[in-house]
């Protein structure tokens, strides 16, 4: 048997790796990467859907397809298949014709039974593949792609896709370094490699098998076969890259050779087929002339199967099918209302009738629509087989026209819209029932009259002139019209008038159709009122205000005027709601709204944004100062007492923020925001006043927003860290604890101290999140120290906003959950100013901390509004003397006296004292002599990260001879 006559069934590999169409591209790449598989067959319910090859993955990696993409969207489909009984030559022809690297083999039932690759075909040919190729030069890919190692992978993929190479060689200075092939691509897709970031150096295979250019071709192929290689790199005598022998190249060349041997046979087959095709074309032309040019559909129906044995173009085109689709149908799939059995019985009956039969049938088009047809049929016999010859004509339009006439009469009578018909002179000749119901006029009362009897008098003569001009010009008019009913009531109607013409274009009638929209217009007015006006005060709301602001700004630009945008917020309104109830508050808002509305000019606007916030829009100002007396009067109007429904009188004031356009040249949203900011400043300055917008404040606000964004991100990314400054007791010099000080790690590696960002956040809720972080980190640090056997105290600063937040104690308790034994080593440092914000609440919180075992310290003592009363009632354990007094006490007698006084107070009230800012050894000596308990500062140790603090602690040696030696050993 010749090598080309072996069947594909003998050559194929029965190991077919099949996957479902919904498998993701990433999963498919995983399957193909290890162990290596060159293709996957896509099947569902036993049906072959497509094939996914390594070359497909090259294309998909090149376009960066998403790993989650289903295989069904990217597979090659339909699939070229071959029968198991086909010969090697047949398979070779198919693979050459369709440029295939894989051939799917099916059995007689169409089931996939195997796959053949180029590797299988080449191995079958064995060493005979050498054929007429004499040396490496005839078998080598001389123009194969080569690139330097730093070439982007994306560039290599582009050449592999568009030039259909299954490899690229990596060379440098003419020397081969490695190779990148289709086999590497599944692994890259499995690992979700980013080809935009990779070079060939990172993905190539450096293990190259090379042969010299003078090697015998047979030896080279033996090497490829034994090593199961797809590519063999050819080098010259100096080891420089010369070319590649590839499996695909060999296969193409031997394929051409084998195919060439069969050319004479193929040419004979082509000639025979050409003659048969010519005869067939002649028969088809005659058939087309006789049948396909007919205006009606002609079909020949198989009496047994009800299939269409033959048919003309009108038959399938009229029903929206291609010829192939129509040939696959049966009469039962085309006609509606009857089963296959019923139709089969009916056809048998028609075959027995001598002559033609006529009937109406219903056909279903491909798109699902239904068509009516008038059909005639007669029986014919071809050979020994019976057929039914049917000719049908589509009568759908005619039937629809008949129905339209019936429908039109029904619509005219039963329509819910009023309809009147006049002649060309405008005399009414008919009206429908809805017309009588809407107008109150019966048909008998209107026939012979003109529509003028319905006029309401709201529209002038010019309105009706324009109506008739448009109607005569365009044959149509539509719009809203007010008419009068028979009982005298006016009503609004949506009217449409159309001219009816005869075939010569002459107007014969006018048809008017109208709907009563009176109720609709009333509802629309109510909806518009709700959409644009405040429900309580009836003032314009935010939507209408924005529209009026846009108009005012445009007018100011045209007339070179100014506009004042005034944001007004009531002071003291909330206590009225709390004390007297919301009804009382609503009455105050209504009264203030009335006063403002009556005071401003007609061209100005007073709007309510919600709650107790109003906006005054003062337009057409010649100067900004022109608004000052107006707003001063507004403040007076607002402060006048308001009488409540209960009889009580209450008073409120207003804080007003103002910005001016075009000096503040922004859009409406920004102007409102700027006015709001100015109002907020007015409240901060004492309320019941007016304040102009300050761009510097807006800049500060923007900077604060940016800072908040950065701090929020830093918290999420863990960019904050605690530094620890040691604290020693002055009697024996022992380290008793450390204060936690926050630091912010920057992207460049630098450390930002808290003074550069915390002061801006003191009044922001973000300070609570920062404080929560410090508590969690400090507790975690204490826990580590406890496990190391260190009995140190950790002091942390608590901001006023954090401590007075509702959930402060809850969060503190949660941080200590499971760590109650270290609570006694935790100390909270409270600013004196924070304690004064809400003395009673701070006192209660300190007592709750004490119940948990947590001690407290009053930080920066002496810098706030200190009083003996506050000091006596605050149950803190420790008082920290602010560093501003300690630092200069050796040169400044007043500072020294303050420190002595604070130490006297702490001793009198039985509290522990801590001096901050100790920068000199002399400070320690003086403080020790004055009886200070503890100290911290640069003279003892700088703030340090935890690991440096622990190293410092290991090297620290107590020294109590501060005054004698002025030395400390570290």
Describe the structure.
Residues 259-266 and 963-970 have low confidence and may be disordered. It is built from 38 helices and 39 strands. The longest helix is centred in the N-terminal third of the chain and has 30 residues, at 263-292. It has 970 residues and is an alpha/beta fold. The radius of gyration is 48 Å and the shape is flat. The chain has an eight-stranded mixed barrel with strand order 30-31-33-34-35-36-37-38, surrounded by five helices. Helix 3 crosses helix 7, helix 5 packs across helix 11 and helix 23 runs antiparallel to helix 24 (582-599).
**What is the strand content?**
15-25%
The residue-averaged pLDDT reads 85
Number of β-strand runs: 39
Overall geometry: flat
Topology at a glance:
Blueprint: H1 8-11, E1 18-19, H2 25-33, E2 39-44, E3 47-53, H3 54-62, E4 81-83, H4 88-97, E5 102-106, E6 112-117, H5 118-125, H6 136-139, E7 146-147, H7 153-162, E8 167-172, E9 175-181, H8 185-190, H9 200-203, E10 210-212, H10 217-226, E11 231-235, E12 241-246, H11 247-261, H12 263-292, E13 297-302, E14 308-311, H13 313-317, H14 323-327, H15 331-334, H16 340-351, E15 357-364, E16 370-382, E17 385-394, H17 396-414, E18 418-423, E19 428-431, H18 433-439, H19 443-446, H20 461-474, E20 476-484, E21 490-501, E22 507-516, H21 518-532, H22 542-559, E23 562-571, H23 573-580, H24 582-599, E24 605-610, E25 613-621, H25 628-639, E26 642-643, E27 649-650, E28 653-661, H26 668-684, E29 690-692, H27 695-717, E30 720-729, E31 735-745, E32 751-752, H28 766-787, E33 793-798, H29 800-803, H30 808-815, E34 826-831, H31 832-837, H32 839-852, E35 855-861, H33 868-873, E36 878-881, H34 883-887, H35 893-908, E37 912-915, H36 921-929, E38 934-935, E39 944-945, H37 946-955, H38 962-965
Helix pairs in contact: 3-7, 4-11, 5-11, 23-24, 27-28
């Amino acid at each position: 048997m010749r090598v080309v006559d072996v069947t594909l069934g003998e050559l194929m590999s029965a190991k077919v790796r099949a996957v479902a169409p919904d498998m993701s591209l990433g999963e498919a790449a995983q399957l193909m990467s290890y162990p290596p598989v060159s293709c996957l067959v896509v099947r569902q319910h036993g049906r072959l859907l497509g094939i996914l090859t390594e070359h497909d993955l090259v294309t998909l990696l090149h376009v960066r397809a998403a790993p989650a993409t289903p295989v069904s969207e990217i597979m090659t489909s339909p699939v070229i298949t071959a029968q198991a009984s086909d010969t090697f030559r047949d398979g070779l022809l198919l693979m050459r014709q369709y440029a295939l690297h894989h051939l799917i083999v099916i059995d007689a039932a169409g089931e996939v039974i195997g796959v053949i690759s180029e590797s299988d075909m080449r191995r079958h040919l064995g060493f005979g593949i050498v054929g007429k190729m004499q040396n490496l030069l005839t078998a080598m890919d001389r123009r194969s792609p080569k690139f330097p190692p730093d070439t982007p992978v994306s560039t290599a993929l582009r050449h592999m896709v568009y030039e259909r190479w299954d490899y690229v060689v990596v060379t440098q200075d003419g020397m081969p370094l490695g190779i990148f092939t289709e086999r590497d691509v599944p692994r890259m897709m499995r690992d979700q490699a980013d080809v935009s970031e990779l070079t060939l150096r990172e993905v190539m295979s450096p293990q190259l098998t090379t042969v010299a250019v003078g090697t015998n071709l047979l030896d080279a192929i033996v090497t490829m076969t034994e090593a199961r290689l797809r590519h063999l790199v050819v080098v010259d005598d100096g080891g420089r890259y010369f070319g590649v022998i590839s499996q695909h190249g060999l296969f193409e060349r031997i394929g051409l050779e084998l195919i060439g041997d069969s050319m004479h046979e193929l040419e004979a087959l082509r000639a025979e087929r050409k003659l048969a095709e010519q005869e067939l074309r002649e028969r088809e032309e005659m058939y087309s002339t006789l049948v396909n040019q007919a205006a009606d559909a002609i079909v020949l129906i198989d009496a047994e199967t009800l299939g269409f044995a033959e048919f003309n173009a009108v038959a399938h085109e009229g029903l929206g099918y291609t010829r192939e689709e129509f040939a696959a149908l049966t009469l039962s799939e085309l006609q509606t209302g009857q089963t296959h059995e019923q139709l089969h019985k009916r056809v048998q009956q028609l075959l027995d009738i001598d002559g033609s039969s006529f009937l109406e049938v219903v056909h279903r088009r491909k798109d699902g629509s239904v068509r009516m047809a008038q059909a005639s049929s007669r029986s014919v016999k071809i050979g020994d087989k019976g057929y039914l010859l049917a000719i049908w004509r589509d009568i759908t339009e005619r039937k629809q026209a008949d129905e339209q006439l019936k429908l039109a009469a029904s619509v005219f009578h039963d329509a819910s819209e009023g309809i009147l018909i006049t002649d060309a002179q405008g005399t009414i000749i008919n009206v429908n029932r809805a017309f009588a119901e809407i107008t109150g006029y019966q048909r008998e009362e209107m026939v012979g009259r003109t529509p003028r009897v319905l006029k309401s008098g709201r529209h002038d003569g010019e309105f009706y002139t324009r109506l008739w001009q448009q109607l005569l010009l365009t044959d149509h008019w539509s719009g809203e019209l007010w008419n009068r009913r028979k009982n005298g009531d006016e009503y609004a109607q949506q009217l449409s008038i159309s001219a009816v013409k005869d075939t010569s274009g002459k107007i014969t009638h006018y048809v008017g159709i109208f709907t009563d929209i009176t109720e609709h217009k009333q509802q629309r007015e109510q909806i518009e009122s709700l959409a644009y006006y405040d429900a309580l005060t009836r003032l314009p709301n935010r939507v209408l205000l924005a529209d009026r602001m846009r108009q005012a700004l445009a007018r100011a630009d045209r007339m070179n005027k100014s506009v004042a945008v005034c944001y007004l917020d009531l002071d003291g309104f909330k206590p009225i709601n709390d004390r007297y109830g919301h009804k009382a508050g609503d009455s105050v808002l209504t009264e203030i709204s009335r006063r403002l509305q009556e005071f401003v000019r007609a061209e100005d606007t007073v709007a309510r944004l919600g709650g107790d916030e109003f906006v005054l829009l003062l337009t057409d100002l010649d100067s900004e100062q022109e608004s000052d007396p107006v707003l001063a009067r507004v403040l007076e109007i607002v402060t006048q007492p308001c009488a409540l429904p209960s009889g009580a009188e209450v008073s409120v004031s207003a804080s007003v923020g103002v910005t001016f356009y075009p000096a503040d040249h922004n859009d409406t949203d920004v102007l409102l925001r700027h006015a709001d900011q100015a109002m907020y400043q007015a409240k901060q300055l004492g309320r019941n006043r007016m304040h102009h917008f300050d761009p510097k404040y807006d800049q500060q606000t923007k900077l604060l927003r940016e800072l908040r964004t950065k701090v929020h991100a830093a918290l999420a990314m863990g960019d904050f860290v605690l530094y620890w400054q040691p604290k020693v007791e002055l009697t024996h010099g022992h380290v008793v604890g450390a204060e936690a000080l926050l630091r912010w790690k920057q992207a460049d590696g630098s450390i930002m101290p808290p003074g550069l960002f915390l002061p801006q956040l003191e009044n922001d809720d973000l300070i609570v999140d920062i404080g929560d972080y410090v508590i969690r980190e400090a507790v975690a640090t204490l826990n580590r120290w406890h496990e190391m056997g260190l009995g140190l105290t950790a002091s942390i600063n608590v901001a006023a906003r954090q401590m007075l937040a509702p959930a402060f104690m809850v969060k503190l308790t949660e941080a200590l959950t499971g760590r109650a034994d270290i609570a006694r080593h935790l100390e909270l440092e409270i600013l004196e100013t924070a304690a004064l914000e809400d003395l009673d609440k701070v006192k209660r919180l300190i007592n709750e901390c004490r119940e948990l075992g947590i001690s407290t310290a009053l930080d920066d003592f002496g810098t706030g509004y200190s009083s003996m009363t506050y000091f006596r009632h605050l149950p803190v354990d420790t008082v920290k003397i602010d560093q501003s007094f300690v630092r200069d006490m050796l040169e400044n007698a007043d500072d020294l006296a303050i420190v002595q006084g604070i130490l006297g107070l702490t001793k009198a009230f039985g509290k522990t004292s801590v001096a901050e800012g100790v920068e000199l050894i002399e400070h320690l000596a003086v403080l020790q002599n004055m009886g200070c308990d503890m100290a911290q500062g640069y003279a003892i140790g700088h703030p340090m990260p935890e690991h440096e603090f622990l190293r410092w602690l290991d090297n620290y040696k107590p020294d109590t001879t501060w005054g004698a030696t002025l030395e400390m050993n570290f």
